[in-house]
Amino acid sequence: MSRYSIFTLARNALTNHENWTEAWRSPEPRPDYDVIIVGGGGHGLATAYYLAAEHGITNVAVVEKGWIGGGNTGRNTTIVRSNYLYDASAGLYEHALKLWEGLTQELNFNVMFSQRGVMNLAHDHHEARDLKRRVNANRLNGIDSEWLDRQQVLDFCPILNRDPAIRYPVYGATLQRRAGTARHDAVAWGYARGADARGVDIIQNCEVTGLDIQGGRITGVETTRGRIGAKKVGVVVAGHASVLAAMAGLRLPIDSHPLQALVSEPIKPVMDTVVMSNAVHAYCSQSDKGEMVIGAGIDLYNSYSQRGSFDVIEETLVAICEMFPILSRLSMMRQWGGVVDVCPDASPIISKTPIGGLYLNCGWGTGGFKATPGSGHVFAHTIARDEPHPINAPFALDRFASGALVAEHGAAAVAH
After folding, report:
1. In this structure, what are the phi and psi dihedrals at residue 307, rounded to the nearest 5 degrees?
2. DSSP characters for 187-213?
3. Does residue 36 sit within a domain?
4. Domain range for residue 131?
5. How many domains would you assign to the chain?
6. Tell me, what's the pLDDT at 105?
7. What's the DSSP call for residue 114?
8. Which residues of the chain have pLDDT under 70?
9. Structure pTM?
10. What is the spatial distance between Cα 378 and Cα 91, in angstroms, rounded to a whole number?
């Protein structure tokens, strides 16, 4: 490191970074915008970015009640994969995965996408049969997927429990090698910087308190910083989607639940993949800092709390210790929760609404982070052209009236 660089770092350290250039602006809200995106998480910021980058719509505001990335984007386990069962889901998540593969270059911001592979364990013959079905379905859709027998699984992840006498012994697993993890904060920051550079206003600490609807069309939003007019409004607020929809008189087929995760103390590298098990209801990966990142299913009660209950933590850690005995003496450093919105078919809503100019992106359940680029890309298309992209057409709101559901409970890997 040069002498100049050392002195520059020292000077900024002593001046509380006050000389550093901000990555994006913090403007005051303008009276009117062409489009307002409600929700400053990954999906909302990606939507704003693609509106500007691909559709030339730059008179856009992202309004966020807290800070960007402070909701589910910063409260997940960072897993990215596309090995979903049904054609519609496979198309959506594979679209996202292909965007993930070029996202660092697209944004000129390192999102730390690591294609370390994701394994879904089978613990008996019946579970293996279901997972092999998914492998074949993935291949028919052009998605990489393969079946590993017991020995191949243990070779790929040596720290798994090898004892054949445990309640849930390793029988085999699916493997998607292109899948992996990404840095959640970096995704939000990269999209925020890219959108800002194209003229999008990112307005934090600005909670939406009402939706202005006149003559069957949205005309703007009421916020804690005053009214902001808009020709179109996209609502991307994850677990609180039903609250915002109710402001427009819409009742969504959504339940909101806490979803918890934990992080252990850091240890040396012992695991270079992601392992998921539906049967024992837990999954695990190792972060670049050495922490074991651990997750499970949702809490069964409805809540908007970002905490969750102790019984889920206890059951999750029991499952992790059975899967990975080597981790049994680790201390947990942190626990957190997000609020997930779950539709009856465990698939999202990316759709126009009966109200002109109002669009919804919600209902992702436990699958939201992995879809971030693809979700933003197709939602921007839907808003800009007032019609669905072919990829998100199956995820319209009216499918709950027509019965054309996309039932993906099993592909959630750790079931809802």
Report:
1. -125, -75
2. HHHHHHHHHHHTT-EEE-S--EEEEEE
3. yes
4. 114-179+256-342
5. 2
6. 98
7. B
8. 1-18, 410-416
9. 0.94
10. 12
